């Protein structure tokens, strides 16, 4: 059934025309050229992202051969989304996030509500259904976290889950005589702290009792021709580097979206790879709302700057540095060209280069514990 | 003085590697179990700040392999180091179990040692070995990594002050200068030498240029740096071990005490943060093996149960059409 559906979607996408006109402000959709421009901007600003060419047989001709999709590896995910269940008690933890440049007074309506601000981790907040048994204990900071986490034994505790690896499947070939104990190998210290370990003040002491199980994700962004929006794909690993099963991935997706908008599907740039994907059917409308809000504030800001008669060189620099600067974009669209043609009379508003940065903030709300949004420092 | 303990590599195999291996196995390798050259990658160890507790959490010291590991002309992303290795896939689980692991391991260690003595090529210092068995019908992949590292006897010790922030030795301008020079290198250097010029500038050079670069520099003023995949503040990453063996083997006169820079800044820090790189002085008893005989090596990866044994990637939930169909309902 799912295979048929996937094929149907593939055909539908094949038949749908490539979007030519830029309409990202009107309905939140972007053209492939704009996707590339926004991707270039993302890669430039945040080098953790890079372009990939993908499987040559799956290359899409409306995108440059070496810029088929964006990828970032090893995105950390410290907690499960199920531990973020939202209750009324959390409402006072909401905090307004301002997107306006801090140098200017922020215009109305350009704030977002950040929930869970300053929230303390608490196991009691976890959903009753959350499985506590699969949470590993945090190793001490003077321990070798890498080695420690990698060696914690979880197998026995997870045996309730149907998809977990059966230990009997692993061939019985432990060979402890393969190498002698090596004093210079950082031991998995949560079990046996080596006496020779450098005794340093323990910065994570305070975090004791706080349970962490660090997963990492590979995140891909592709362009969906049918919905004319970017689309996000996830491949997850647990703390041992073992690929996550779909059930485990759904633990990292907010309850509103798991199994509804997030499904496991064949990754479109690979012949056989499967990945979890956020279905893009609602992306355009959400992006439209967000862009409208941001655009209004940006336009207001640009107008304000134009009105001020004296512009010192310093101010000019500041304007240029902004994301929405008036620099011409490579993915220039009719909108932008029109705005450029009218010269300084019409403010340009938000530029399409910024689309993916906004998009990541939107995705971060679907996968709240995966730190896809590396742009917060920005 | 405390013994230096190194954080071992933790393997991270992207599922795409198993897909690629399946393809290779069916279309090209077939029943051959000859060794296949592969490349892995590691980069500067990352730590993430837990937004709820404010703690820095060190991420595992990963060596990653993926589908591109089989491509010879693979172009690495910026800032990653690309160790080469050997993949050996067995046809049956019995062969996999019966593999002569000691011989395979020693062969790889011998290659590293040969490169130290003959080519002096530091790119070969992080060679690794991967043995696999692919159960294609059940989508199960058994694998076992080895990262050979030479054992120093007696062990290296670190001064009582431990690892200090690099800012204690190099001011921020110097560190950004090092960062800038690393970016302009034709290849990303896994190891490099740092020298303070009389003018106050710092310059870097590949470790291969040791003799020329440090010709007029006394051993105390030498700083040897490596790209550190470990984000743990007290345990340097695995690649340092073979670098130390390299230095002892080739330049025994000047390297019984070395100052090591753990390079941990892939990007210059934001204005509010500090440089993460660390510096420490390591020393070894002068009597440590100076012969050209190969020291013993260790480095088989432990499995999640903490034992020396193979790991298992069970991709049935992500590859088996039956489970995928069940998932989609």
Task: Please tag this protein with its features.
heterodimer; A: 378 residues; alpha+beta; two-stranded antiparallel ribbon; 26% helix; B: 329 residues; Cytidine Deaminase, domain 2; 2 domains; six-stranded mixed sheet; 8 helices; 19 strands
CATH class division of the largest domain in chain B = Alpha Beta
Outline of chain B: globular
Q: Count of helical segments of chain A? A: 9
What is the CA-CA span between the terminal residues of chain B? Answer: 61 Å
The coarse silhouette of chain A is globular
Counting structural domains of chain B, the number is 2
CATH architecture of the largest domain in chain B: 3-Layer(aba) Sandwich
Which class best fits the helix and strand makeup of chain B?
Answer: alpha+beta
Mean pLDDT of chain B: 87
String of helices and strands of chain B: EHEEEEEEEHHEEEEHEEHEHEEEEHH
Share in helix of chain A: 25-40%
Rg of chain A (C-alpha, Å): 24 Å
- How many beta strands in the DSSP annotation of chain B? 19
Beginning-to-end CA distance, first to last residue of chain A? 44 Å
**How helical, in percent, are the residues of chain B?**
10-25%
Contiguous runs where pLDDT drops below 50 for at least 5 residues of chain A: 87-110, 117-168, 189-211, 310-345
Count of runs of 4 or more consecutive helical residues of chain B: 8
Family (chain A): Belongs to the ATG3 family.
Protein name (chain A): Autophagy-related protein 3
Subcellular location (chain A): Cytoplasm
Keywords (chain A): Autophagy, Cytoplasm, Protein transport, Transport, Ubl conjugation pathway
């Amino acid at each position: 059934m799912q295979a048929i559906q996937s094929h149907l979607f593939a055909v539908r996408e094949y038949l749908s025309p490539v979007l030519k006109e830029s309409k990202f402000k009107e309905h939140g959709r972007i053209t492939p050229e704009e996707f590339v421009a926004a991707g270039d901007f993302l890669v430039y600003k945040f080098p953790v992202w890079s372009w990939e060419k993908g499987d040559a047989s799956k290359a899409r001709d409306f995108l440059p051969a070496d810029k088929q999709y964006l990828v970032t590896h090893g995105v950390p995910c410290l907690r499960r989304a199920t531990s973020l269940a939202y209750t009324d008690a959390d409402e006072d933890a909401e905090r307004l996030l301002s997107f306006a440049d801090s140098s200017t007074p922020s215009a109305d309506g350009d704030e977002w509500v950040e929930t869970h601000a300053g929230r303390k981790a608490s196991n009691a907040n976890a959903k009753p259904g959350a499985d506590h048994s699969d949470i590993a204990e945090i190793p001490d900071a003077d321990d070798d976290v890498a080695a420690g986490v990698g060696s914690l034994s979880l197998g026995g505790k997870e045996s309730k889950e149907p998809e977990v690896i059966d230990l009997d499947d692993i061939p019985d070939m432990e060979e402890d005589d393969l190498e002698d104990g090596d004093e210079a190998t950082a031991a998995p210290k949560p079990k046996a702290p080596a006496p020779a370990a450098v005794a340093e003040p323990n910065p994570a002491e305070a975090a004791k009792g706080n349970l962490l199980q660090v997963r990492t994700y590979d995140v891909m962004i592709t362009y969906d021709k049918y919905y004319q929006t970017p689309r996000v794909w996830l491949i997850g690993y647990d703390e041992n580097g073992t690929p996550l099963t779909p059930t485990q991935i759904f633990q990292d997706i907010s309850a509103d979206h798991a199994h509804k908008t997030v499904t496991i599907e064949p990754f479109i740039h690979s012949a056989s790879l499967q990945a979890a994907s956020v279905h893009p059917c609602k992306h355009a409308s959400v992006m439209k709302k967000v862009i409208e809000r941001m655009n209004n504030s940006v336009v207001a800001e640009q107008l304000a700057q134009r009105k001020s008669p004296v512009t010192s060189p310093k101010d000019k620099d500041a304007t240029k540095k902004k994301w929405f600067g008036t620099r011409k974009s490579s993915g220039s669209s009719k909108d932008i060209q029109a705005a450029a043609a009218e010269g300084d009379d019409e403010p340009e508003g938000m530029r399409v280069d910024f689309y993916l940065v906004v998009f990541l903030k939107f995705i971060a709300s679907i996968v709240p514990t995966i730190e896809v949004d590396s742009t917060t420092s920005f | 003085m405390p013994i230096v303990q190194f954080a071992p590599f933790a393997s991270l195999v992207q599922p795409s590697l198993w897909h690629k291996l399946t393809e290779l196995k069916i279309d090209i390798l077939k029943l051959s179990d000859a060794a296949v050259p592969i490349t892995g990658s590691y980069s500067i160890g990352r730590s993430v700040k837990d937004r709820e507790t404010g703690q820095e959490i060190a991420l595992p010291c990963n060596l990653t392999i993926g589908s591109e590991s089989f491509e010879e002309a693979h172009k690495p992303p910026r800032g990653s180091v690309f160790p080469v290795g050997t993949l050996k896939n067995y046809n049956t689980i019995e062969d996999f179990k019966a593999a002569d692991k000691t011989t395979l391991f020693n062969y790889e260690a011998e290659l590293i040692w040969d490169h130290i003595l003959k080519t002096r090529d530091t790119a070969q210092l992080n060679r690794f070995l991967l043995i696999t068995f692919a159960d294609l019908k059940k989508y199960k992949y058994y694998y076992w990594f080895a990262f050979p590292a030479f054992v120093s006897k007696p062990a290296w010790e670190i001064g009582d002050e431990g690892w200090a922030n690099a800012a204690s030795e190099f001011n921020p301008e110097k560190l950004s200068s090092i960062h800038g020079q690393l970016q302009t290198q034709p290849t990303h250097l896994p190891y490099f030498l740092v020298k303070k010029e009389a003018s106050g500038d710092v310059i870097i050079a590949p470790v291969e240029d040791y003799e020329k670069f440090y010709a007029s520099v006394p051993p105390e003023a030498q700083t040897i740096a490596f790209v550190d995949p470990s984000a743990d503040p007290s345990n340097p990453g695995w690649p340092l071990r073979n670098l130390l063996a390299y230095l002892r083997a080739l330049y025994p006169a000047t390297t019984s005490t070395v100052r090591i820079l753990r390079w941990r800044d892939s990007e210059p820090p934001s204005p509010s943060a500090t440089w993460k790189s660390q510096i420490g002085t390591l020393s070894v008893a002068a009597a440590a093996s100076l012969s050209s005989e190969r020291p013993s090596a260790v480095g088989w990866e432990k499995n999640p149960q903490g034992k020396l044994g193979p790991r298992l990637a069970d991709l049935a939930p992500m590859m088996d059409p039956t489970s995928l169909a069940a998932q989609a309902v």
